[in-house]
């Protein structure tokens, strides 16, 4: 019996999450709330919004795989792209645009992609080895229009769509 | 491959004028080609992310997204999906894409909010809720997930553009 571990899509998703979390931590990145209290930016994975999540937040997930062209004739090696949706949700208007700019600047040079394997002694820290460098292309970058009656998670929202490219 | 382009000069026009006209037509044709391809990709993305079968009556999102010629000054281009039309005939376009309705809500309304929302699920239709007899209350609890069909189509088109304009 073979237990299927994380494959390339999940590896890319998690590598990006880990990359952004590291940047948030090393820069102690925070945003102010309506009372002027600094709040740490959270990075979450998943397509479905979770009401337990804390704002401000970066929500990230793999949406689709638009490209898988052959690298050369006669080879099964492919140049693949993995399209990632990054939804940014903040407490105050304007912060979502600033956070989007920050993310764009941070991921502009690409991200190291890791291959993760489970670690039974410490499930929270899977073993990882470098798989390659993921190049980043920006597909969309625009605010999601808000409405006065919108849920707090949707009042100040910005969406980035990126393609991460990796050979393999 | 080297090609010779023969440009007929009519009525003594400056050659640059004819080249301008030719390139304008070419770019308009290219834009139309891209717009039509984009429409196909949007249709595909909507179908691929469909969770329920196509409702038998009423407006469908796909049908409301059309290629339209746009005039700006002396130039013409093509657009895909008119927001005004969508807001009028397929108001749920944003809800499906972003997981949030135009009103800001994420969970569809039910009978508790609006007593007129009653009906039944038709067997074998992958969960299409049909208003009318027999009337049962409905109480949706799950938010509609973001289908991202706009981004899906754009992601494919970015790679297709080079191929189409060869």
Question: What features would you describe in this structure?
Answer:
The complex is a heterodimer of chains A (168) and B (166). With 168 residues, chain A is of the alpha+beta class. Chain A has two helices and eight strands; from the N terminus they run H-E-E-E-E-E-H-E-E-E. In chain A, strands 3-4-5-8-7-6 form a six-stranded mixed beta sheet. Chain A has a two-stranded antiparallel ribbon with strand order 1-2. In chain A, strand 1 (30-32) and strand 2 form a beta hairpin. The longest helix of chain A has 20 residues, at 8-27. The model of chain A has no long low-confidence stretch (mean pLDDT 93). With 166 residues, chain B is of the alpha+beta class. Chain B is built from five helices and five strands; from the N terminus they run H-H-E-E-H-H-E-E-E-H. The longest helix of chain B is centred in the first third of the chain and has 34 residues, at 15-48. Chain B is elongated and about 75 Å long. Chain B starts with 14 loop residues before the first helix and ends with a helix. The interface between A and B is medium-sized, with 29 and 21 residues.
